[in-house]
Amino acid sequence: MECMVALYCRQRHDAESAPCDDCGSFLAYARKRLEKCPYGEEKPTCARCPIHCYKAAPRALARDIMRTAGPRMLWRHPWRTLGHMLDKLRKVPDPMELRRQRRSSARR
């Protein structure tokens, strides 16, 4: 998400080195939501995720960021783009199944 926000901010807000305040606050929000996500670092792509963790306004901004920066990611970050495309193919476990697995492993 950080690479996409940087590309988006550079395109829309003419920020060269660091994201502007609005984009920076969105990144902080996205990091906070990722910390609370039951999938953690194994989170699927947003399109495949059964849990919508963003509120309406940040979700609309994330959609705009992805729509703007997504096509540019191929040229700027080809390996990350390839990883993202492969993530789209991954099977997403049900959140309740994840919870059951964590409970059973914690009991052992």
Description:
This protein has 108 residues and is mainly alpha-helical. Helices cover 69% and strands 0% of the residues. It has five helices and no strands. The protein has helices at 2-13, 21-36, 56-76, 78-89, 95-107. Helix 3 packs across helix 4. The protein starts with a helix and ends with a helix.
Q: Runs with pLDDT <50, length 5+?
A: none
- CA radius of gyration is 16 Å
Helix vs. strand class: mainly alpha
- Global morphology: globular
**Strand-and-helix sequence, N→C?**
HHHHH
The percent range for strand residues is: under 5%
Largest sheet: none
Helical content (DSSP H or I, runs of 4+): 55-70%
Q: Can you count the beta strands?
A: 0
User: Count of helices?
Assistant: 5
What value does the average pLDDT take?
84
C-alpha termini separation: 35 Å
Keywords for this structure?
mainly alpha
Brief overview, please?
With 108 residues, the protein is mostly helical.
